[in-house]
Amino acid sequence: MKHIVFLLLACLYLYSCTSDPIVDEDVADEPQIGDVTEIETLFEERAFPDKMHRKLLLELGICDSLPKEISGCVECTPRNFKLFQFKPKVKVEDAFLLQIKAETILKGEIVPLPVRHLLVFERENGQLVKVNGFRGNLIAMRESASGAKDLVIRFYVAEDDVFLNCLFAWKDKKYSFVSVEAIHGAGGNGPVKAEFKDSISTMVYQSLMSNGMLF
What we know:
Blueprint: H1 3-13, E1 36-38, H2 51-60, H3 68-71, E2 81-84, E3 95-100, E4 117-124, E5 127-134, E6 137-142, E7 150-157, E8 162-171, E9 174-185, E10 188-191, H4 194-210
Antiparallel strand pairs: 1-6, 2-3, 3-4, 4-5, 6-7, 7-8, 8-9, 9-10
């Protein structure tokens, strides 16, 4: 997908960026289906909120318990990794999302990750198994009736200099692409209009696949 295509799509099919979001301040304390939680990961925490998070990273074998100066590879700290529970009724040790900071060199690798990576793990027969991989940044989660929260992931397509906010939903034991929700860059800065979402989403999905953003 060339830059000019994104430029035309952005100019024709995006809502005005001046539109204010509608916020319902009178909401229940318990999460409701459709409720959205925005996420910003800065990798500035000094300790994991749950000791289990570090144990899971060590189990995956992608980092070390010792500092990089001693082990020679990245340490399992919140400066490089962030875990999220995506199935409210399943313990985090059996199902979690893992956001990895850009420029992190994983254990056994020599090349740093060029962008943030988001991995989805579930435990099967006692072993952690990767069910999804995204070269993108988790920016929101939405309550869903599926038993797993919907994800909004932001991808950056360098050849088009554009950010794509895409929705993924749990289906058949993994996350599947649903639609592109917003385009930022290449002449656009806002949500995609509903009447054009299907056609644009098809093009965006093809772009994500051809650029190796989903694996």
